[in-house]
Design goal:
The protein is globular. Helix content is 63%, strand content 0%. The chain is mainly α.
Length: 180
Amino acid sequence: MSRVPSLSRDDAASIDQQPLWNRLEAERKVPTANIFRALANAPVLLDAFLSYANAMRDSSLLSPKLRELAILSVGHATGSEYEIAHHQSHGRKAGLTVEQLAAVADDESTGLFNDAERAVMALARESTTKVHVSEAIWAAAAEHLDDQQMVELTLTIAWYNSGVRIMGLLHIDLEDTYRK
């Protein structure tokens, strides 16, 4: 159970918060995900959170497939049921197969992934579990991505690491619609 109330549009403290709910409902799935309902307790920061997340998703040169592999690798490395469940569908939309989605949790040497994909997953895992990434792991990813994409990958990995920690700290429950 969440440590803070899961708010809805009806709970918005003032008419000034209605535009945030309009934005949230226009940009994200309805019904509103539990993480956003919890973050609505801090509306100004939720608004900034949405802007940052949208920029990563919509303005990045990093391919959606590599982005989702990085996010799912963070989710698996941290054991975040919420992150994994929410990004399985994003991964499918980005072109990942059901077999690949299942294999993200396993060793990156599986034949289901190309060199760039394995390098991105390794970078995400090592950054998540060790914080400091070895030169070899960095170089393997940088072989396939330019400097802008490497920065975008770095920001994505760090952003989703913060997300799983937010979910953990606030005890964000996975929505029933995502449970298998």
